[in-house]
TrEMBL record:
Taxonomic source organism: Aegilops tauschii subsp. strangulata (Goatgrass)
Keywords: Endosome, Membrane, Signal, Transmembrane, Transmembrane helix
PANTHER family the record matches: TRANSMEMBRANE 9 SUPERFAMILY MEMBER, TRANSMEMBRANE 9 SUPERFAMILY PROTEIN
Family statement drawn from the similarity comment of this UniProt entry: Belongs to the nonaspanin (TM9SF) (TC 9.A.2) family.
High-level lineage: Eukaryota, Viridiplantae, Streptophyta, Embryophyta, Tracheophyta
Entry annotated with the keyword RNA-binding: no
GO biological process, one term: protein localization to membrane
InterPro entries: EMP70
Protein name: Transmembrane 9 superfamily member
Subcellular localization: Endosome membrane; Golgi apparatus membrane
């Protein structure tokens, strides 16, 4: 859950890439260029999701480990 929570930034990046394609990018010369743009945007969003997800997972793991390591068992 923590991986996807921190990796959800990629959905915003992908949404903005599609918004940019539809409203601001008028210099593309056909559907092949648009498909390449969307494909590379998907790869970039996947890379961002993996990077931010890994950081979020590591941070939550360290937090939970620290939290439960301080609990005393009697």
């Amino acid at each position: 859950r923590s991986f996807f929570a921190s990796g959800s930034v990629a959905a915003y990046i992908l949404g903005y890439a599609v918004y940019y394609l539809v409203f601001d990018l008028h210099s593309l010369s056909g559907p092949v260029s648009a498909a390449l743009y969307v494909g590379y945007s998907l790869l970039m969003a996947l890379a961002v999701m993996l990077a931010t997800g890994a950081v979020g997972l590591g941070a939550s793991f360290c937090f939970v480990y620290y939290l439960f390591s301080t609990v005393k068992l009697d």
